[in-house]
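// run 5 | inverse folding | seed 20
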């Protein structure tokens, strides 16, 4: 129940919703039950069951200001003044008014509920997304993207369909159920006690179903997450799927997950739908029992109930099963919503491992150097990636990281903007430990260009501007420096051309130049270039390298290079191998080291 109320709290402010919803639901229930209790005087008039003595007794109730007292007074008054037809018209008018008011208040309560649901879902989805987007980079390396999307979309939708509807049943339907039970007790308490024997039996049966349904719901949502993840990976890697003729493999994998989801959902639906016929059968059996028991008492004249009261009692009891069944079904279907809610709250409760201090330093500018001192780093799997890394990157200088794949170069680059924290040692900027600096101000000083140009399915202008309120002239200026302006003008709508999912309408070199233009527009004093040209052909590499050279002018740069020809002019080259810096120096200095690792790499690339 803790998770249930926590999910409801996302619809805040709750106070502005609960009071009017409870009030309108209560009024709708009262007027809804009133329709059936008015059957008794209606039947009494039709069957000529009202004598003059009862009329006189009712006329003496004018001082009784209760709802029943006032109805009896005016009913008797109409009967005495206008006869049976007048009394019949009065009762029918009251019933019509009651039905009208009941449905008006019911509509208002439904409107309030829909507003409550939409607020809850929007706030919950926003909270999940906000928390997710602020989690550390390592979280996204471990989680499947499709699983995250499933939680934000489908799981939140399940909460809307199940949890909010349960809240409605727990208020509106409960009011109606209580009003019906009160009316039944008012007519005949002994018949009602006999009828309520069905409740414990139904309760035991439904509670058993609920426990099993929670497990099926959790499995179903996990299967659905797997399906979304699989589709995301398959559609995103369609070139690889088709290139390796793996359509059958992917199809079979999808089929296995799809069938698993089908079975879980079927089990859940089968158990959920079982509660409705069970409740209905039990209800009908009780009605039959009441007819036999109550009818025999009336026929044998062993009960004070009149025929009209007994008919009204049966009519009301036939209605009491509807809210009881709705409450039962709502709590049964809520299990799927609770299972989804638990998955959502796990994401909401996830805390970022990389956090700012209570009062972090706000860096306005970069003035001196970045110092990496005795840094070690280990991922979650306890594999040591970096060992005792030391170097200083002075302002305006360029340091290049080279070495074999998997040696730790990219990890070093990820530690500088604090995507991860070192497990040992210290990284400082201008003498301040980066753990004491706000992440926003630290990264605002840096421009990052990676091997894979990350672009969005938007216009070229928006991809270069990306979150900045800049003019077209500023974007064009950045594109020119990045050697991108000419090919942009060749696009169908130049800077307003939509480039497709991840920029698939452009070549690799074009995408990379847009990525560089984006970094140029930010105008950062520090650059981190992670193998920005390694995946390009010779012609594209030349254009991109020129763009990078323009970008690096008068900036402090950390370069990860695959092709050594691109970093020969670096102020210092660090050779990283198996998590350690094994050589350092300029290009010429490193070539002089006999049997040096850098010299071997250079020789291999010149062959």
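// decoded
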């Amino acid at each position: 129940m803790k998770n249930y109320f926590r999910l409801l709290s996302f619809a805040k402010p709750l106070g502005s919703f609960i009071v009017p919803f409870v009030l309108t639901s209560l009024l709708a229930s009262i007027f809804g039950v009133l329709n059936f209790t008015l059957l008794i005087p209606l039947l009494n008039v039709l069957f000529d069951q009202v004598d003059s003595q009862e009329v006189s007794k009712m006329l003496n109730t004018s001082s009784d200001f209760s709802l029943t007292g006032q109805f009896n007074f005016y009913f008797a008054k109409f009967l005495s003044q206008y006869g049976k037809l007048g009394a019949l018209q009065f009762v029918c008018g009251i019933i019509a008014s009651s039905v009208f008011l009941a449905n008006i208040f019911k509509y208002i309560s439904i409107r309030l509920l829909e507003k409550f649901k939409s607020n809850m879902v929007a706030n919950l989805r926003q909270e999940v997304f906000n928390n997710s987007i602020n989690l550390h980079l390592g979280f996204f390396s471990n989680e499947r993207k499709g699983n995250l999307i499933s939680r934000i979309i489908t799981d939140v939708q399940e909460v809307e369909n199940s949890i909010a509807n349960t809240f409605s049943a727990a208020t509106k339907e409960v009011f109606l159920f209580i009003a019906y039970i009160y009316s039944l007790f008012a007519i005949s308490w002994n018949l009602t006690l006999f009828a309520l024997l069905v409740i414990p039996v139904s309760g035991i049966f439904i509670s058993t179903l609920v426990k099993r349904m929670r497990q099926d719901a959790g499995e179903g949502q996990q299967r659905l997450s797997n399906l979304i993840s699989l589709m995301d990976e398959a559609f995103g890697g369609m070139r690889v799927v088709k290139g390796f003729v793996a359509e059958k493999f992917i199809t079979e994998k999808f089929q296995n997950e799809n069938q698993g989801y089908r079975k879980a959902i079927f089990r859940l639906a089968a158990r959920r739908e079982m509660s409705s016929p069970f409740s209905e059968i039990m209800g009908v059996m009780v009605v039959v029992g009441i007819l036999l028991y109550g009818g025999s008492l009336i026929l044998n004249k062993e009960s004070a109930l009149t025929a009209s009261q007994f008919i009204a009692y049966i009519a009301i009891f036939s209605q009491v099963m509807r809210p009881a069944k709705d409450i039962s079904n709502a709590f049964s279907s809520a299990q799927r919503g609770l299972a989804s809610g638990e998955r959502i709250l796990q994401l909401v409760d996830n805390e970022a491992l990389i956090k700012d201090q209570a009062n972090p330093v706000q860096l306005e500018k970069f003035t001196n150097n970045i110092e990496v001192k005795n840094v070690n780093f280990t991922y979650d799997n306890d594999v040591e990636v970096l060992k005792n890394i030391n170097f200083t990157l002075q302002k305006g200088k360029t340091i290049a990281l080279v070495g074999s794949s998997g040696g730790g170069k990219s990890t070093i680059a990820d530690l500088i903007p604090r995507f991860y924290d070192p497990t040992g040692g210290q990284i400082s900027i201008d003498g301040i430990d980066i753990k004491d600096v706000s992440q926003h101000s630290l990264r605002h000083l840096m421009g990052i260009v990676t091997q894979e140009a990350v672009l969005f399915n938007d216009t070229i202008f928006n991809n270069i501007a990306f979150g900045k309120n800049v003019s077209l002239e500023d974007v064009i200026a950045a594109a020119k420096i990045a050697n991108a302006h000419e090919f942009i003008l060749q696009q169908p709508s130049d800077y307003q051309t939509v480039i497709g999912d991840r920029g698939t309408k452009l070549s690799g070199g074009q995408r990379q130049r847009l990525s560089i233009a984006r970094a140029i527009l930010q105008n950062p004093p520090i650059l981190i270039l992670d193998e920005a040209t390694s995946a390009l052909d010779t012609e594209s590499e030349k254009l991109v390298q020129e763009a990078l050279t323009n970008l690096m002018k008068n900036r402090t740069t950390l370069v990860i290079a695959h092709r050594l020809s691109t970093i020969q002019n670096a102020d210092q080259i660090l050779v990283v191998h198996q998590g350690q810096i094994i050589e350092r120096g300029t290009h010429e200095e490193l070539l002089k080291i006999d049997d040096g690792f850098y010299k071997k790499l250079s020789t291999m690339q010149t062959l």
